[in-house]
Amino acid sequence: MRTFRSSRALPAIFASAALAATLTIPALGQNRPESILPPGFGDPNPAPSAAPVRPRVRPTPAAVAPPRSPAPDRSTPADRAPVANAPAAAPSTAAPVALVPPVLPGDEPTPDATPTPSATPPSPTDFAAFVRADMPSYARRSLASVGVAGPSEGAMAPDAFGRADGRFLETLMRRLHPPVASRWLSIALRRTLMARVDTPRGVNGADFAAERAWLLVRMGESVAARAMTQAVDTEDYTPKMFEVAMQAALAMGDPAALCPAAEDGARLGRERAWVMAQAICAGLSGTPARAQPMLAAARKSGVAGGVDLLLAQKVIGGGGRGRQAVTIEWDNVPELTAWRYGLAMATGVEIPGTLIDASAPAVQGWRSLSPSLAPGARAASADFAAARGILSSAALVDLYAAIDAGDDQVPAAATVARDLRTAYEGADAAARAEALAKLWDEPKGYETRYARLVLTAGAATRIPTTLAKADTDRLIAAMLSAGFDTPALRWRDKVLRGSDGWAMLTLVDPSAPTVGYGEISGYAGANDSAGLKQRMYFAALAGLGRLTTADIEQGAKTLNVPVGQANSWTRAIGKAALDNEPGTVVLLAATGMQSRSWRGVPPEALYHICAALRAVGLVGEARMIAVEAMSRL
User: Fold this and answer.
1) Average pLDDT of the residues in 413-441
2) In terms of pTM, does the model score above 0.85?
């Protein structure tokens, strides 16, 4: 099936007083992740609890610990930037996450940031420091600049955060609750978090990398998160990084990734999961004789029990010399945690759908990227991943191509794969368009409907503009969902004035002149009785600089879109734009879109986001986000 492979809120704006406190005192009200192991970890049948369980030993001084886009170096290709006038690079510009939504971390003030390692000679008893001192300079990685990708690989420049205070940035990341409404903003956020950036003032480089990795884990970006934790040498791990490294490895279903840090992690004395990791790593290294006594000691001391201990035994039994056969029963397991998820994925244990459905949205992202799942099993999570920017259009097409070519097919996914083949290889344009319509009409869910546009973006580019009675609105929405703006603009003379397609092309066309307010009043979005699309259209045009000041004032008054209102969030994103800090702008933009649906994003927020992105050179991203508002409402 290679022939059809593609070519490549915030419920409301921050209350002023709330963010004002964040801006002025960024180090207060800090959160730390909950224990990697679930409540009742040492009991045979853990009982669910809504209260977070805190580690018994307070962490050593560390920076604010974390709570609870396309990157070129990720495992799947990402959607490309818009072809026409793509934005230039901006000038200088621990136990698993508690997967049941009610289990959230609480606020707890912590000491100052972990100090950056100094040149002071290490104590003979400090083995990690001794190793650092003895390591040749060429083998060490600096904490002054940490990340995975650079500008040449699609990420941001080293100075993306400018002179922003690191504690402020960490607070923003920690208090951001993914997923955000916009797929394109999620993609930009991933690029920002993975970038090889200069460590901001006020924080330790390893801690800042851990905070970024922790947000990536919560976004469902398991591959990117693990890459971030691996961008720091284990000798430089801080307590926060140890916790986040555990999270990232379990999200990937890769307990072996814990082994380089297992010994030091266990010495922290405050995370039982690292004690279990020691036993697991002993088993994976082919020394089950050492692992079994460690498991027995863990069971006897109450460190582990129930399904959590059994899963660890199963991982050890799968090692080079393991001979254990362990059966996992989920009947009395009340919740899915990252420990249970990661070890089950590593051993091929099927997780009940009820536990998956009750887990946090990030789990769907993890599953969509998991190499241990068959293509048909990954398809169930792929819609969420595509709608949230975790999977690109090309990666989604590849997934369904694998399903079509495989023998063990899931019926529903196989049907989609066959229709997609027809959309690419149909006998004529009419047959291909009919297959596209079938793919678009079938899904009922919010995310699945948009995911189908992402899936069919490449096929939509192959529909000729000469086709009679073409579904231009959805053809254009599909192409733009993956950044295919040049093919979409071919339909400029075919769309009906005032239609959704016309509005989307007006927003994305880099050569379109300034429009007058009369054209806004003439647009009435499909299925938009409340007028939200029209308000979003006005806000997007204003933010993209396509309206005069007089028209902006008229639209704000007539449509009741208070773009001129100021609060702490608008002042923060405006200042970041003025200071030419694209990384800070993207992070604040995501803070302003903390909503699973576009209906939870106020139009005035879209105005400030588009204006700030445009100001720091991210014009292509601003256009795509604006278009997405039109296609998803």
Assistant:
1) 96
2) no
